[in-house]
Amino acid sequence: MNRENYVNRLVNEKFWNLNIETLADGGGWCNTIRSCVYRKTTRRGSSNNFEKQLAFTGILSNKPEENPDFFNWNRVKVRYCDGASFAGDSEDKANNLQFRGQKIWLAAMEDLMSKGMKNADQALLSGCSAGGLASILHCDEFGSLFPKSTRVKCLADAGMFMDATDVGGGHTLRNMYEGVVTLQGVAKNLSPACTSKLNPTSCFFPQNIVPHIKTPMFILNAAYDSWQVVSSLSTPAADPNGAWKACRNNPGNCSPSQINFFQDFRNQMLNALKEFSTSKENGLFVNSCFAHCQTERQDTWFADDSPVINSKAIALAVGDWFFDRSSVKETDCPYPCDKSCHNLLFRS
Questions:
Q1: One Pfam family from the UniProt entry (predicted)?
Q2: Tens-digit pLDDT profile for residues 185-212
Q3: Residue 244 lies in a domain
């Protein structure tokens, strides 16, 4: 079925239920007093610095030709400013820092429920990057807001941050997450099913959370997530001699041994998702791209040249999963086989 016919079919079927979608905006985390003090002067740390308007594209678009399954939903973007994926609850009075992500999350949900979300027939919690992690952390909490008659699901885009060894043999992301969890008082808001077995830092990693999530979830991730490649796996600190600089900026510059390193990272991600993917209610789309956040960009969500696996674009895969039209468990062949990727390239 071509794209035009698919759009027309869905418009004619008229999905006019009251559908609410909450998007947790990406934006990383802050893990030290210094980084959090700086962050509060930016749009990622205070609503005082938010943009007044944002473009709604991709999964947020209101155009059926751009967003066939969700264009006529109530679409809400929950702005992100706490630096801990809406999971912190502490303060540092000496530096005038309030870490209230969990309270912000609860207040936002209370406000949306009062505005009509409580009457939703269908609801999707989604987000990319730090928002993707927020969707994972809060998925069951979100599901508990609704009666069993409501179709409630969660989508994590580029939220599968891995507890992986970097190119220098260190643990860049684990060290960052340990600071986030400790500084912002995250531990008490993490999954008890996880923290009863592992330390709080480990329970901030999706690979240790997703096995415990009961609400249906869709994991969308690039196997070689570009944020993790640049900011976790091959950072300048982990690569002091600059051997990874050209590869970090463009996978086309990577040596065979460097590609093998990324193939091992891909395998770690796929292994972490094995148990998750066995559930018939869950969905999976892991494409072999060097990309990050593919739901909110129109070119990767639904366009004539969007990334595909088995000829299926991301928007169609998510729609098929959400509406139970078909099971979606798509895993791409290893890089560089996928020619549909929109790989992110960086300047030196």
A1: PAE
A2: 999 999 999 999 999 999 999 999 999 9
A3: yes
Is residue 7's pLDDT more than 90?
Answer: no
Q: Which of 25, 292, 306, 332 is catalytic?
A: 292
Compute, in degrees rounded to 10, the torsion defined by CA atoms 216, 316, 80, 21. -70
CATH number for the domain harbouring residue 260: 3.40.50
User: Would the pLDDT of 10 be above 70?
Assistant: no
Task: Specify the number of domains making up the chain.
Answer: 1
To the query of whether residue 292 is one of the catalytic residues in this protein, the response is: yes
List residues bridging with 156 in a β-sheet.
127, 219
* Three-class secondary structure of residue 194 per DSSP: helix
**In angstroms, rounded to a whole number, what is the distance separating the alpha carbons of residues 218 and 225?**
17
**Does residue 342 lie within any of the structural domains?**
no
Please name which of 214, 215, 204, 216 lies closest in space to residue 86, comparing C-alpha atoms.
204
Q: What is the pLDDT of residues 256-303, one digit of tens each?
A: 999 999 999 999 999 999 999 999 999 999 999 999 999 999 999 999
What are the CA-CA distances from residue 283 to residues 77, 90, 132, 171, 193 (Å)? 22, 34, 15, 29, 22
Q: Say what the pTM is.
A: 0.92
**Residue located via tokens 């071509």:** 2
225 is annotated as an active-site residue: yes
Q: Is residue 344 part of a domain?
A: no
Q: Which domain holds residue 311?
A: 6-331
In 3D space, the residue among 160, 316, 142, 270 whose CA is nearest the CA of residue 215 turns out to be: 142
The candidate with the shortest Cα–Cα distance to 2, out of 322, 308, 330, 334, is 308
Within a domain: 337: no
Catalytically annotated residue among 126, 129, 226, 234: 129
Check if 234 is active-site: no
